[in-house]
Design goal:
The protein has 398 residues and is α/β, with parallel strands linked by helices. It has 14 helices and 13 strands. The strands form 3 sheets. A 6-stranded mixed β-sheet has the order 4-5-13-10-11-12, with helices on both faces. Bound molecules: pyridoxal-5'-phosphate (PLP) and zinc ion.
Length: 398
């Protein structure tokens, strides 16, 4: 049988330590927590030569031995991952930073880093014989599931808020998905998706409700390590919604430590959210383990309009263990920095990327970030997916 030489072992619950095998279809743990994938790290460190990885095609499948797909034939790919790490051309100079980098995830298929997580989740769904995928989404996740489902020959249903940016409503249909709009937040979409799933037998791809999306997102951490030659940056700034990217990268750093790939301190993980929806910064400040749901969430950054997340405690753990912080920025600051990224760096970013940049400016002002720090600002999505939102804030109208 063809294989990926995966070293996957089993699935575990980070909350109650329950274990599950990888041949069954899994959702959340019986205790309600998201599940994580475990590997045989001794074996992985024996069979992978990290310095040889660069000779493989630069997609996320480069790390296949520490990814969960068992049979190579089940990999569903559109070339996700392998995104550039861009040193700042002008902004760094202007704000006195010599080591400022942008990780431009807008280069992924369907225009955002959602391609990594959902490419992985769809591949595993195919491997496990799942046929119908449903997802509640604020936008980018829907496009990604639709694309990978189409490629895998699976059915896809997308439930999104009526006020989602219009490109998401268009590309999902072209990618073959059935689309339903709900007058409400992503949370309401989640409730509607659960109903349809139950009535019609769809499998839910809601954030963290299946264990494999994180495994795709964690490849951002592996890529960064390679791009920094295994000397990780001091700070990572990441716009946070459901938290899969933050949790995934932190898992990747932990795995690389277990395999002896990295030494020294791991990056400080910084979560940025919006003033109008900031459950994680609020919980971080209050010192709680879980984040209370945010009432009446609003922000133009659709990916950050997530009032409550099942992985809240994992995000807070990663932020605290890493010595990081969590911060909310205003929509105005986001737009201002989205314009700066475009006009000073040539990166047409989703407003979530502007949020990362706005967070950097704040943390530099407060002294949390030193001008000498090596900082990676995540641009999680492409501005082309937000044209209707962005045209309302054109620089010429300021
Ligand atoms: C989904 C999304 C986010 C939030 O990502 P999580 O990893 O779920 O926290 C941020 N930015 C963009 C552009 C997104 O689509
Ligand atoms: Zn559990």
């Amino acid at each position: 049988m063809p294989s990926t030489n995966t070293t996957v072992k089993d699935i575990y619950c980070p909350k109650c330590a329950a274990r599950y095998d990888t041949d069954s279809i899994l959702t959340l743990c019986d205790c309600g927590s998201p599940l994580l994938v475990d590997y045989d790290y001794d074996q992985a460190s024996r069979i992978i030569d990290r310095h040889e990885l660069k000779n493989r095609p630069f997609t996320m499948w480069r790390y296949r031995e520490i990814l969960p797909v068992k049979d190579e034939a089940n990999i569903v790919t559109l070339g996700e991952g392998g995104t550039p790490l861009l040193p700042s051309a002008h902004i760094g100079n202007k704000i006195g930073m010599n080591n400022l980098y942008f990780k431009d995830e807008g280069n992924n298929p369907t225009g955002s880093f959602k391609a990594r997580g959902l490419g992985m989740a769809v591949s595993r769904a195919k491997e496990l014989g799942i046929k119908k995928l449903i997802i509640p989404t604020a936008g980018n996740a829907g496009s990604a599931v639709a694309a990978y489902a189409a490629r895998a020959g699976l059915e896809c249903c997308i439930i999104m808020p009526t006020d989602a940016p219009f490109p998401f409503k268009v590309d999902g249909e072209y990618l073959g998905a059935r689309i339903e709009l709900v007058d409400g937040t992503i949370k309401d979409c989640g409730i509607r998706a659960a109903e349809i799933a139950k009535d019609e037998g769809w499998f839910s791809f809601a954030t963290l409700k299946e264990p494999y999306r994180i495994e795709g997102k964690k490849t951002m951490g592996y890529e960064l390590a390679e791009q920094f030659d295994y000397d990780l940056p001091d700070v990572i700034i990441y716009p946070t919604g459901g938290g899969t990217g933050l949790i995934g990268m932190w898992k990747a750093f932990d795995e690389m430590e277990k395999m002896g790939w990295i030494n020294g301190p791991k990056p400080k993980m910084v979560s940025v959210q919006a003033d109008g929806c900031a459950p994680i910064p609020r919980a971080f400040e209050q010192g709680t383990d879980h984040a209370e749901e945010w009432k009446d969430p609003h922000t133009l950054a659709a990916g950050l309009r997530v009032p409550g997340a099942v992985g809240d405690f994992l995000m807070l753990q990663a932020i605290r263990e890493s010595g990081g912080t969590a911060l909310a920025v205003s929509d105005d600051e986001m737009i201002e920095q989205t314009i700066a990224l475009g006009s000073k760096e040539g990166i047409f970013a989703a407003p979530e990327g502007g949020a990362s940049m706005a967070c950097l400016i704040r943390l530099l002002d407060s002294g949390f970030i030193k001008p000498t720090d090596r900082v990676v600002v995540f641009i999680t999505g492409n501005g082309y997916k937000y044209l209707d939102t962005l045209q309302e804030h054109l620089p010429s109208n300021k």
